[in-house]
Structure formats: structure tokens, C-alpha cells
Amino acid sequence: MIHDLQRLLRCHPRTVDLVVAATFFVCSFPGSVLTLPGRALDVPWWPGVLIAGVGCTALLWRRTHPRTTVVVTLCCALAVAGLGYVLTALLIGPLMVALHALALRSDRTTANVFTFAGIALLVATTLLVAPTGEPLVLKLVGPAFWLLLPTSLGTTTRLRAACLEAVQARAEHAERTREQEARLRVTEERMRIARDLHDVVAHHLVLANLQAGTVVRMLRTRPEEAERIAGELAGTTRSAVRELKATVGLLRHAEDVESPSGPAPGLAQLTDLAASFEPAGLSVTVSTEGRPQPLSAGVDLTAYRIVQEALTNVTKHAGTGSAEVRLSYSHDRLGITVTDHGATAAPSSPAPTGGYGVIGMRERALSAGGRLQAGHRPEGGFEVVTELPLLSYTQSDPQSDPRSHSQSHPQNALA
């Protein structure tokens, strides 16, 4: 009910101003006849009521012109004090309301200046013109108390409102920030899944296309070889379906995701990856430099996908029968170099800045905190060079054992 009343008052400010002005004007009647005990009224009552009416009328503009309202009501209070009336809240009430409105709508310094100036003027006036028998405490403490009270209440209300507004603004900013971060994470996840889909589809479809073409060519002349390659084609398609299922499964809700059928691709499967290109006529040689060190899951997957995409590009564009993958481990970086030995002027080789394959590899490297460069070699062919950060080795982490990556070094590594 209190909130409904506050909302009603905020919706009708002019009505509230009229009620406040009328209330204090009514209070001016008893205030103009109030005297100290044992003393008679030295002035008639009507001048005090008339002056209070002027001050109450000025309250109608306290929201739009608070400073002017304070000046007018202060002049009325000084006039009342000069006539010899007892300064109570019944007569200086308009000045109190005006100071409260000023404290609500201005800074603390402005409100304090007007308040202390009003106190000084009222005290000086009462000391000069008030009857000599009036207590000194009433002349000094009364005006100071009645004027400091509304200023303090107005300042406190303004600071509380400002604090609530700041808290609400911070909450709204935090909500917007959370929404933006959520949208950014969704976008990044979609881009990552799109890159995975591109790598999986491009790799397996290129191999399947080359194997199917080989089967057609050898079907009549070399049926046994065609049968063997057809079997490898079935394995290629099964591998594609399996990886597509694992990648697309990330798009489901958590409760719909089935248990993974196998480990995520990584450098441990580099031997199988290199062997998968042999039916397509590409011989891949893998060599390792330095002591193998552990990789985080994200970097391991990124390295695998970059090698996969680079070798797929070699199969599609280079027109060569051999490629080399070189892994170089340092204390904090993993270097990956994929090189094909195509012709010097290979028109079908991918441009360093063109094609979605190179763009996807570069984005993968950047997302893992590394970098990638791709371009033609002066002596012929194409080369992709990548640097990725390594996971710091700790004895307490069982997954950081370098032996867990021993499968990433094939038996046919070059010395």
C-alpha cells in the first residue's frame, strides 16, 4: 500500500504541491498567535498569516526553481522574525520545505550554503529585533535546528536515491555484459564447430573422391587392387561418419549427448592420419625434433586439425606425391611445419591469404594462442608453419607424462 501511495504522489506532483502549500498556510494561523508563557502578543496576527501565505505560494515552484523559492521563503521568514513573532515550524515551515527541495535537487555545497546563510540571517534578525526578555537559547538554537533538519533529510534522501540508481545501473551493466559474453561464447563455439566440420568433411571427401576415382580406373585392369582400395574407401566413409557424429553431437543439449565413442583427435593419431592419405597417392613423412612435451586438449586438437587441413590442401591442390610434417618441441612452444615439394610455379597451390582452408587454420592457431604462416617456397611447393603454446609439465598431472604422446611419432620418422 505504501508503494501504491508513493506511485500516486509521483504521478500527481502539482496536486501534492497544492496540498503542501495549503497545509502550511493553515498552520500559519496558530503560528501567528503563539507567544511565550506569561507574555502577550505585541503584533496583530494577520501580518504573519499574510507573509506566510506569500511563502506558501512560492512553494508551488519549488520543483522547477528551488533556489528562487528558498530566497522568497527566507525573505518571508526574515519579515516574520523582524515583526517579533516567535520563530516556530508553524511560521517558517515554507522555508523548511524549500530547503528540503533544494537539498534534493542540488549538490551538498549549494544546499549547505543556503542553509547556513539562512541560519545566520535569522539568528541576527532575532537578536536585533526580538524582545529582550526572550530566552537566548530560543533565538540561537531554534532557527538552526528548524533549518538544519530539512536540509539533512533532503541530502540523505538524495544520496540514497543516487546510491540506488548506481546499484541499478551496475546491475543493468552486469546483465548486459553477461548477455554479450554469452553471445560471444556462442559465436565462438559455432565458429569452432564450423571449422571442425570443414576439416572433417574436406579431408574425408577428398580422400573418398580420389579413392573412388582410382577404383573406377583399376576396376578392369587390376581388379584385386581396385577391391583393396574399395575396402579402404569404406573405412574412409566410416571414419567420416564417426567424426561427423562426434562434432555434430556438440550441438545437442547436455542431457542428449551420448558418451563419446573414443578420444578426441590429437597428435597421438598423427600416424593414422598420415596413413589415410596413402590411398590418395600422397606419401606423408613425419619427423620430430626436441623432447616431446604434453599439450592441453585444445592445443592438441588444434595441432591435429591444422596438419589434417594442410595435408588435405596438398592432396587437392599441390599435384605432388609426397609431403613432410615436422614437429619441433621447445621449452614452451610447439612448431609444426607441413611442406609439399610441388613444382616451382604451382598454379593450383593455395594462396597464402586466400581460401577458407588457410583462413580456418590461421583462426585455429590464433584461438589457441599461437600463430600461422602459409606461402609458396622459393625452391618450389607450399609450406605451412605454425607455432602453438605448450602445456607446462607438472609431475602431479598424470596426463602430462610425455609417454602419453609417444604414438605421435611414427616408426618411419626421418633421422
Please explain how this structure is put together.
With 415 residues, the protein is an alpha+beta fold. The protein has 2 domains: 2-172, no CATH class; 267-415, Histidine kinase-like ATPase, C-terminal domain (Heat Shock Protein 90, 2-Layer Sandwich), CATH 3.30.565.10. Helix content is 60%, strand content 9%. It contains 11 helices and 5 strands. It has helices spanning 2-11, 13-32, 46-58, 66-83, 89-105, 108-129, 136-218, 223-248, 270-276, 297-318, 356-367; strands spanning 283-289, 322-329, 333-340, 371-376, 382-389. Strands 1-2-3-5-4 form a 5-stranded mixed β-sheet, covered by helices on one side. A hairpin with a 5-residue loop joins strand 4 (371-376) and strand 5 (382-389). Helix 2 (13-32) runs antiparallel to helix 3. Residues 253-261, 344-354 and 392-415 have low confidence and may be disordered.
Map the helices and strands.
Layout (H helix, E strand, L loop, with lengths): L1 H10 L1 H20 L13 H13 L7 H18 L5 H17 L2 H22 L6 H83 L4 H26 L21 H7 L6 E7 L7 H22 L3 E8 L3 E8 L15 H12 L3 E6 L5 E8 L26
